[in-house]
Amino acid sequence: MAAGIYIGSTSGYSGKNMVVMGIGLRLQKEGFDVGYMKPVGAVPEERDGVLGDQDAFFVQDILGQDAPPEFVSPVVVTQDFKVRAFSGQFDDLMPSIKTGYEQLSKDKDAMIVAGSGSMYSGRYCNIDGMRVAKALGLPIIVIDRLDKELNYDYLVVLKDVLGDSLAGVILNDIPSSFMNEVDGLIKPFLERNGIKVLGVIPKDPLMGAIKVSDLAERLGGRVISCASKSEKVVENFLIGTMQVENFMTHFRKNKNSAVIVGGDRSDVQLVALEGNCPCLVLTGNLYPNDIILTRSEVLNIPIVVVRDDTYTVAKKMEAILSRHKLRDVIKIRQGAQLVSSSIDFDYIKECMGLEDK
């Protein structure tokens, strides 16, 4: 049977797909025949009348695979599944996961198995990451993405529970301002507790970026000007509620930031347009005046109008930028490159029992 590894995380939206694709593409480049599985699908999607997981379909496309969804994601969490699971009306799901893994790994050199949510997600029906990795006999890599702080306690508890099954951890999305603390304090602390840090992936604004057209859709708004430029990318956002002078100071420091501003604040809107922001997001369902519309067209900067107030839009924007999935080719390339240059591949291959080709 193929050598394998399980990629889990301390929470959802930690970068599992990015790491899975990064490792998979690197192993393929080195000549290995790589298989992929996501045993528990969290976002149901049908393809050719067969139910699978949206992320799993996407990762398979990137890795050039088309294995049957019933093997790749034998468990797909639909609303009906949840109702039955919470009522205790489910059979043991592990045999179908084991069967899927056996089928997929038959002719492969290496298998990458992706978790769903955190290592404990799925406990309500006994298919959490801890159980799945153990049932498949796989070493585990856990990703911890910085969100205000790292989950170092969680990682140490996982080490206590998993012992040698925990191959190591990857710290993801670390800004340059936090690198000294990671290198000087957190890495030595984890390694003193027997946890190997397999890599530290730096924060890259592009990885959280989103196209203007996708942003408008996610905010429930519409592009009213310069729609042909809605492929532009937004990496961050600024709120234009302050005085124009203060706003200009912040704006100069934050390039590629969408500007969220009330539809009636034409002063701030004009400054943002002239400063070449990627897009304007006007709140309160208020349309801009003709001067703003004309400048938008001349400068090729799209304007999105949304119904919500500025505060609500800012909260939504924060969630969107922190959880936006990798779907653009440019981001996948960048993500694979980040993974490739940041993690200890030789050690991962050693854990999997892979010999160099």
UniProtKB/TrEMBL annotation:
<dbReference type="Pfam" id="PF13500">
    <property type="entry name" value="AAA_26"/>
</dbReference>
<dbReference type="InterPro" id="IPR027417">
    <property type="entry name" value="P-loop_NTPase"/>
</dbReference>
<dbReference type="InterPro" id="IPR050500">
    <property type="entry name" value="Phos_Acetyltrans/Butyryltrans"/>
</dbReference>
<dbReference type="InterPro" id="IPR010766">
    <property type="entry name" value="DRTGG"/>
</dbReference>
<comment type="subunit">
    <text>Homohexamer.</text>
</comment>
<dbReference type="InterPro" id="IPR028979">
    <property type="entry name" value="Ser_kin/Pase_Hpr-like_N_sf"/>
</dbReference>
<protein>
    <recommendedName>
        <fullName>DRTGG domain-containing protein</fullName>
    </recommendedName>
</protein>
<feature type="domain" description="DRTGG">
    <location>
        <begin position="214"/>
        <end position="319"/>
    </location>
</feature>
<dbReference type="Pfam" id="PF07085">
    <property type="entry name" value="DRTGG"/>
</dbReference>
